[in-house]
Every structure is written in C-alpha cells, then in structure tokens.
Specification:
alpha/beta; 7 strands; Nucleotidyltransferase, domain 5; 47% helix
C-alpha cells in the first residue's frame, strides 16, 4: 500500500490512542472486512482473515482474536446477516458459521457485540443497497484512503468503514 499509507496509518493509530471509545465494525463473510473508528474518524480497515480448510476458505478465529486484542475495541458492531434468496444451503450455513465465529471470539474476549441490520445503518449513511454506492460514499468520506475502496471486490471494506462511522457517530 505504500509508505505514505503506512505512515498515515501510524499517525491515525497514535492519535486514536488518546481518544475514548474505539469501535470495530465488521462486514461478515469470507470477503468481508474490519473497520476501526472513533467519533467518525476512520483508523484502519483490514480484510477478513481466512484460512483454507479442506479446500474451502473459512474465517480464521485465531486471527480475528489477534486483531481484536491488538486494538481492543470497546464495542464490536457486526452487520446482522441472514440467508439470501436463491442462496444454497451450504453457502447459508457457511455465512452463518462465520458470523458465529466473530460473535464467539468477541464473547471470549469480553467485548460487547451489537448486531445491526444493513437497512438501519445504510439508511442513516445515505446509501442504497448497491455496493458501488457504498464504495463511492466511503471514498467521499475518506479521500486519503480511497485506494482501499477502488476495486469492485472492496465492497466489504466500504461496508465495514461506513458501518464503523455510523456506529461511532450515533448520538452526536
């Protein structure tokens, strides 16, 4: 990602250590992401850590645990997921399994979890269900981090970032 991004990330994280409440928001799923924010200020965005198991990718509970311990958020906000029409039984099970792994790791670390329906945070963020709209809005909020959201497959990053912003700005 380049030296500039690495340095900006260090500055953001040092600044955030002085803040009061760090929120971690997660767009669950194999291609999802974690976003860390406080008061609408985006600290970092990380792709979902996965492992390969029997030829299939699964969310790595150990890596998720390390990520959460490294920044120890005061609240974990997870997009509430459910099966989608025409989604196969195996896909639905794997998606739910991944969300359960995330909630279970957080519970083991004593981090409070809040589940939020996509319609709730997307309406407040002013975006539709269209993934491109989320990527565009994330680029508008954080132009210095636009490279994180430029590819079509970066929609999980954009969703996590916007969810983190929404969660950290509530009540302000």
């Amino acid at each position: 990602m380049g030296a500039w991004y690495a340095r900006e990330r260090q500055i953001r994280e040092a600044y955030v250590l002085q803040m009061t409440k760090i929120i971690c928001a997660i767009d669950p799923g194999i291609h999802g992401a974690f976003a860390w924010a406080t008061d609408g200020f985006l600290i970092a965005v990380e792709d979902m850590p996965t492992i390969e198991y029997n030829g299939k990718h699964k969310i790595s509970a150990a890596s998720v645990g390390r990520m959460l311990v490294n920044r120890m958020p005061e609240l974990l906000v997870i997009e509430s997921v459910s099966a989608m029409p025409k989604q196969g039984v195996t896909s639905s099970f794997n998606f739910g399994y991944g969300a359960g792994v995330l909630e279970g790791v957080a519970a083991g670390l004593g981090i409070p979890v809040e589940m939020v329906r996509p319609a709730t945070w997307k309406k407040a963020a002013g975006v539709s269900a269209d993934k491109s709209a989320c990527r565009l809005m994330a680029t508008r909020y954080w132009p210095g981090m636009a490279d994180l959201f430029k590819r079509v497959k970066d929609d999980g990053r954009a969703d996590a970032a916007l969810l983190a912003r929404w969660a950290s700005m509530r009540g302000k």
